[in-house]
Design a protein that fits this description.
DNA binding, 3 strands, 150 residues, alpha+beta, Arc Repressor Mutant, subunit A, single chain, 3-stranded antiparallel beta sheet, 6 helices, globular
Amino acid sequence: MERGQKQAVQAWEALFRSQVTLLRRFKANFRTAEISLSEYDVLYNLTLFPGARLRLNELNEHILLAQPSLSRLIERMESDGLVRRERDPADGRGTLVVLTEHGSVVQRRVGRAHADAIAAYVGGALDEEELRVLERLCNKLRAAQSSIAN
């Protein structure tokens, strides 16, 4: 293994292992929440887009679930009144997932507790400068993927 390759593998392993550790803690926190971490992820992602709506296939790009699993999750969330599905007026074959008022209220309420946990687990481990560097590096890594060949 070349030096650069070895360093890339070690960096990835460190990033991945820290993510696994943090996600386990966050999932444990969500055991007592009114929604699951996956449901919160959907609600949070919808708040990031105009009109709190997104095509199902576009939402799938932001969520770490396979398309069939996301579709089943959206069905459950719709029956709980957190989201609703609509036909995409620009393409009648497409489905939009729309955040409901109830979903927005739940997202904000659960989001406050989740933000407190993030502040404790991530902010408790890194100082402000380290947090800025981490954010910058993660954003750079994510953005670069579209221009790196398979």
